[in-house]
Design a protein that fits this description.
This protein has about 210 residues and is α/β, with parallel strands linked by helices. The protein has helices at about 35-40, 75-95, 105-115, 160-170, 190-205, and strands spanning about 10, 20-25, 45-50, 55, 60, 65, 70, 100-105, 125-130, 145-150, 175-180. The strands form three sheets. Strands 1-3-2-8-9-10-11 form a seven-stranded mixed beta sheet, with helices on both faces. Helix 1 (about 35-40) links the parallel strand 2 and strand 3. The radius of gyration is 15 Å and the shape is globular.
Length: about 210
């Protein structure tokens, strides 16, 4: 679908009561990329999966970067607000509850940006291989907001200091943060799937 401002896929829920998942792909992915992951993480949940609008050498992303790990902060801000508008419009169009963002790499970074700028739009977030997208002037109010952050201890794409700073910012903002460093690189593993699925199941039980 191309309405609501983003090319996207929407899969309605088949199990009532589960929080919808907002699936945010990594560089080079698209609106189809994380659908199998979403179906495995929370079978029967509604899935909302937009395609990033920025192209880097033909590969979709959610915001521009100037170099690896160096973000175009003005574009990041604009794209975050644009994605926020899409979430609000999609919730109305599809009669959705607040979604849990599930983002990988670039998608995890814009999910973190959403948490820092428009946290009221999300019920929680699963951040897979995220770094701090920008340094907030003041911590947002994330009191009690559930966040799962999974990093790779051998990830060559994300400096350890950036992951650590994201943890500090989320904790200072009051997020209900679960953090695990897995023995892998930037790629996703079966451990990611198991941990995230368990976290989402607990999240769903607590919010019934």
């Amino acid at each position: 679908m191309t309405d609501l401002g983003f090319i996207h896929r929407f899969i309605p829920a088949t199990q009532p009561g589960l929080p919808p998942l907002l699936l945010l792909h990594g560089t080079g992915g698209d609106e189809n990329d994380l659908l199998p992951l979403g179906e495995q993480l929370s079978p029967g949940a509604a899935l909302l999966s937009p395609r990033g609008k920025v192209l880097e050498n033909g590969m979709p992303r959610f915001f521009r970067r100037l170099a690896e790990g160096v973000f175009d902060l003005a574009d990041l801000k604009a794209r975050t607000l644009e994605l926020a508008d899409f979430i609000a419009a999609a919730r109305t169009a599809y009669a959705l509850a607040k979604p849990v963002a599930v983002g990988f790499s670039n998608g995890a970074n814009i999910a973190a940006s959403l948490l820092l700028t428009r946290p009221e739009l999300l019920a929680g977030a699963v951040l897979l291989r995220a770094m701090l997208p920008f340094e907030p002037q003041a911590p947002p109010d994330l009191a009690g907001k559930p966040v799962l952050l999974l990093s790779g201890s051998n990830d060559q794409m994300i400096p350890a200091a950036s992951s650590e700073r994201l943890i500090e910012v989320l904790q200072a903002a009051g997020a209900d943060l679960v953090y695990k460093a897995l023995p892998t690189g930037h790629n996703l593993t079966q451990n990611d799937l198991i941990i995230a699925a368990h976290w989402l199941k607990e999240f769903g039980l607590e919010n019934l």
